[in-house]
Every structure is written in structure tokens, then in C-alpha cells.
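Q: Given only this backbone (120 positions), what sequence would you predict?
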């Protein structure tokens, strides 16, 4: 069996020998009590300082993609028969989307002082 894409022509054995990246998809994330909506704050979340929020499949991929290295992202896109449209349908990730910091708060430390700014 051969795997084809526009740049390669690999046999299954050649493909199997390549290093694999297994995405570390998290099924939940910790949300601090102060970051919870008022209707989700309870005595229990107050005592624990927050709660675990379950992530659906696409949320888990979004979280993983946000912390994946550029090399890991390129690896996925270099797989034989990779199709960005199908990848987006499955994961919700637009691989060719430009990253925008517009509206994001950034912190900068300069001469021992910390400054916050909102990117416009």
C-alpha cells in the first residue's frame, strides 16, 4: 500500500517508521472560582477555589492546538493526504487561519515593573 500526497509517495512501512505525535487532548480544565459565571459559583466551588470544566472534543483540540509547537503543527499538516478542510471539520481547527492578538491583554515586564496593555 502506498500513501500519496502532493509532496510524497511513501509505502506503509516508510510511513510507519516516521516519528509520531500523539496529541495530549485534555478532557477537562480547571476554572478558578473568580472566573466562573455567577450562576455557576456555589459553596463547593468557593471552598475548592474553582471547578473542573469538561471539554468537548473540539474544545480539547483547540486547547491542544494553542499549546502545540510549530513543529507539531507542521507535522500534522505534512501527513500524507492531509486535507485542511477535513481537519477543520473533525477538530474545529483552521490551520491556515492567521493568529490575531486584537482585543487580547498582554503583560510586559520592563525594569522590574509589570505593565498590561490591550492590543487594538
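A: Predicted residues:
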Amino acid at each position: 500500500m502506498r500513501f500519496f500526497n502532493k509532496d510524497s509517495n511513501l509505502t506503509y512501512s516508510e510511513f510507519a517508521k516516521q516519528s509520531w505525535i500523539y496529541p495530549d487532548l485534555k478532557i477537562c480544565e480547571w476554572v478558578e472560582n473568580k472566573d466562573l459565571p455567577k450562576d455557576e459559583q456555589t459553596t463547593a466551588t468557593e471552598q475548592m477555589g474553582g471547578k473542573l470544566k469538561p471539554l468537548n472534543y473540539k474544545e480539547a483540540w483547540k486547547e491542544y492546538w494553542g499549546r502545540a509547537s510549530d513543529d507539531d503543527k507542521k507535522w500534522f499538516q505534512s501527513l500524507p493526504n492531509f486535507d485542511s478542510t477535513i481537519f477543520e471539520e473533525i477538530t474545529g481547527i483552521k490551520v491556515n487561519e492567521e493568529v490575531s492578538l486584537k482585543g487580547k491583554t498582554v503583560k510586559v515586564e520592563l525594569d522590574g515593573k509589570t505593565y498590561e496593555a490591550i492590543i487594538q
